[in-house]
Every structure is written in C-alpha cells, then in structure tokens.
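Hi D.,

Good news: the full-assembly prediction came through. Inputs first.
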Amino acid sequence: MDPSAFAPAFAELAQRLQQQELLADFGLFALRGLTLQPVLDEACRVASRGLASQFAKVLRYQPAEGDFLVVAGVGWRPGVVGHARLGADLASPAGYAFRTGKPLISNHLDADDRFRTPDILVEHNIQRAINVLIGGGDTPAFGVLEVDSGERSDFESRDTAFLQGLANIVAAAVERTERQEALQRSEAMTRQLFESSPDCVKVMDPDGYLQRMNVNGLGLLEIDDFSTLAGQPWETLWPAAEREQIRAMIEAARAGRSGRFEAFCPTAKGTPKWWDVTVGPVMSESGRIESLVSVSRDITQRRHDMAVKDQLLEQKDLLMQEVHHRVRNSLQLVRTLLQLQVLTITDPAAREALEEAGQRVMTVAAVHKQLYVGQSVKEVELQPYLEGLLADLSVSLTDQVNGRRITWTADAMQLPPDCLTSLGLIVAELVTNALKYGVGQVKVTVQMADAAVRISVEDEGPGFPDGFDPGRSHGLGMRLVTSMANGADGVHVDRSGGTSRIVVDLPLP
Amino acid sequence: MPSPSAPCLLLVDDDPLVRMVLTMGLQDKGYDVTEAATGEAAMVLLERGLQPMAVVSDIDLGQGCNGIELAERLADTHPGLRVVLISGRLRPELKADRNHRAFLPKPFMIEALVRLLQH
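Then the structure:
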C-alpha cells in the first residue's frame, strides 16, 4: 500500500497529540495563575494554535445588557478585545451555544440561515466558527469560547472535544478566581469590622495568647506598641485579682462556650477603667476552634454614672427623712404647746376644744407618718397603711382605748396619697368618737363599693340615738367627715345590726 | 415649778424649741428637768453627779453620738438608769421596753411620756 495514503491520518494523529499537549500545558498554566485575564488570553492562544486557526476569542456574558463582551482574543484588529459586543440571542452563533449549552459548528456562516453573521466576523472575513460554553451547570455560565476561521478547512466534531476541554479548564479557573475574590471581600469586611469597632477587640490563639488587637483597642488600653504584647497570655493584661476569672473564660471558650463578665482593669498607663468583656471561640467549618475573640467595652463612665445615681438616691432618701423629721418635730411643738395652753384654761368647753385640737394634731401626724413609710409617691397599699394608722391611734388614744380592742378588715387595694389622707382622717375621727362615746371592741371595715371606698366603724354600744343624722351634725369632726364624703348623703348610720355603726362613702378621684 | 423633792429627768434633744416645750410640759407634770443638747453634754452632766430617775433622749442628736449610742454607753456606765428614746424619724424596727429602752414617736402627748416614765 502506498504510505502516502496514511499521511492524512498521520497528520490528524499529530494534530490530536498536539492538542493533548496543549491542553496539558494549559491546565498547568491555569492552576498557577493568580488572576483570570492571563488565563483567558492564553486560552485564546491555545485554541487558535490547537485548531490551526488565526482567530479565537472569549465572549463574556453581560447579564445587565444581555449580550457578550469580547474580553480576550487573538487575531483581531486593535479595539476589538475589551470593547466589541456581540448579541447573545439564539440568532447569534455564540448566543446559540450559550443559550442551549450545546457546542455549535457553522462552516458556512454567510449561507447559514440559522444565524446572522456578526459584523465583527464579516469585517475579518470569517467563514467558519466553532463555539463552546464556558461553565454552566449549577452556576451561571461565564460565556463562550469561540474559534473562527476564514481560510482553513471545515471545523469537525473532533475539534469540539479539544475546544470544550479548553473551555472546561477556563471554567475551573473562573470558579477559583470568583472564590478567591469572595474570600478577599470577606476578609476585607472582617478587617473593616475589626478595626472600626469602638471597643477593644482582641484575637487570641486557642490557648489564650494574644495575636492581634484593633487600633481602637490599643487606644482604649493606652498601649503604644502591641508588639510588646504579641504572643503573651491575655491574662497578663489583667490585675492579679481578675486572672482566675480570665483563665476560666478562656477555658470555657476553648470548650466552645461564650462568656461575659464585668471587671476592673487599669490601662497600660495606669488609668483606672471598668470593662464589660465577652469571650468566645471562632470555629472552622469542621468545628475546630481556630482562635478566641474577646471584645471589651469601656464601661467606666457607666459605672461612675450609676454610682452617682445611687448616691443621689441615697441623698434623696436622707433628705426626705430629714423633712419628715422636721415636720414631726414641728408637730411635737404644736402638740405640746396646745397641751400647755389647756393647762392655763379653766373654762371646760374651751379646754375640751383645745384637747380636741391637740388630738387632731396627733391624728394628722399618724396619717402623715403612714403615708411616707412606703416607697411609692403615686399609689399606696391600703392594708399596711390602715394597720399602721390604727396602731398609732391606739398609742395616742391610750386613755380612751383603756384596754378595748380595735380590729380591722380591708379589701386589698392601692390608693393615691390624697385619697388615703382623707380616708385616714375619716377613720381617725370615727375611731376617736367610737372610743370616746362607744363601748367595747371597735371594728373598722374598708371596702370598695362602686366608685367609692366604703368605710364603716362600729362599736358594741347600743347604737346612735334616734334622729341622729351624722351628715347634719354640727360637731367639727363630723363636719370634716361629711365634707370629705362630698355631702350628707355620703354619711349614714346603720341601725340594722343593733350596734353603733356609721358608714362613710369616700368618692374615688 | 417642781418641788425640791420632784423626780429628776435628764432631757437630751438637739432642737432647742422642742427641748423647751417638753421641759415646760414635764415641769407641769411635776418633774425637775435638766437639759442637754448632745449626748456628750449629757454624759458630762451624769459624770458630774447628776442623778436623774430617767433619761429622755431624742435619737438624732446632730453631731456626736446619737440617742441609741448614748443609751448603750449608759448601759455600761450607769446600769439600771432608765432611758426613753424619742424621735421624729420613722423607726418601725424599734421595739419598746427591751433593756430598759422604751421608744415614743413624735409627736406624742406629754401624758404618754409620763406613763412610760411611771411604768
């Protein structure tokens, strides 16, 4: 057989072997590449050489515009690479490969009714084109790798395999580059957060040795040179009294737990400061602790403000106590002066009036005392108020009490101070009357009744005289009670039980 | 005015007006009252030989020791000397008549104080 008959096969074989070598070399080149553009440029050179064609280009899909931009190429006139744009629709050969994901060979572009021939191809007398997709699958495709020719023989399906292999290496390089860029953006953001935090942020190794501290942290701690602390245990920054807690926090973080505490630690220059500190682990995807991070917030001012507030509250309490003290001293003066005055008066009616006046000073004092025992200035619990008031009245009315019991029941309720003042005066007045004019045990009841507080006081006497209407009494005491009850209708005698019982309805505000 | 054989009281209160009216009221009840403005002044009077039947002392005496401290000092120096404490402050925790130490909140009737002294 004529050996020359094998020449085409040998040539074919040689070309395929060359393509394999080109792919192998290009793969190594792409692995070493740090940026993408050199990989795209080399892909075009390799494609051109592997397919013995003058022209090759990488078309990158532009999602915003919906077309391709020529981002790399060989053989084209200046101004094409980086600038020329081609359609990405199905009527464009590259668009067809991009949209369908299938390699496309068109050996007679000017006669191929499927496609329009892009101007750039017409300009360069391109007759044939072969297009393969770069990327795709789970991620959006990068674009198309295209080889074009005006003079070589037709592209064949065997050429597709070489070009697709080349495009796949480019796709891998694109993915790696995008991952690197994402990582760089993440690292840049982390760095930004680290440095922009107003707190002291420290990064330590898993054993608690200092690795980094942000600039604001150095400022807060008044550290001029971090290099003197790098590699030192974090606990060495703290006073001896706090180190055990620091070690415990580190141990907890090493076990995967975050912790928080407040502690005192002066700066490197001795400025006293208080800190709110959090410590936590930074873990890798596999769950291994890669480092520890601590954030310390300067709370010195807050602690100072709280101490000032506590001091002011204490001063306020002392001031209030002093006010009450002086009020009661003044009431003592009035009380004693009235008593002394009584001694100088012989007229029995006048003496009785002055003694009543003196007694009213005592009841006002009892009402005042109970109101200011509690902490609230808005509402006061009725039950403890009533209990204290009746205890004080028992002391001040010892002569009248004379062994008699004063008992009470009251609904649980809170009332404003003004209301309790009136209630206290009413109770004091009625209990005093019951002790003076009544018999036996005195019982006080306070209940909620519609829009009023119902106060009743009864003793074991035979009851009030027929015709006695407390609402129309001329005595000062009952006039006061009637006035506080908003009129005579608010005061009445209950004769149903056969005891002396008087009922007053005190309207609620 | 009290008789020469009138029982003697030592009244300790830093408020001169309160001291004055209480003295007048107690004198009207037949007591001979010696006044002191501070706990320290009261101690000096006692060390110089004053022998009251009881001491009536406000709890708040301004600077120096307060009435409770005075009572505790007297428990050592003058055991058996009755001390009645009075006060315009709210002292709900004080209980009457333990260790000879009764308490009256201000304002009180002179009769109430006399009853305590006579108890």
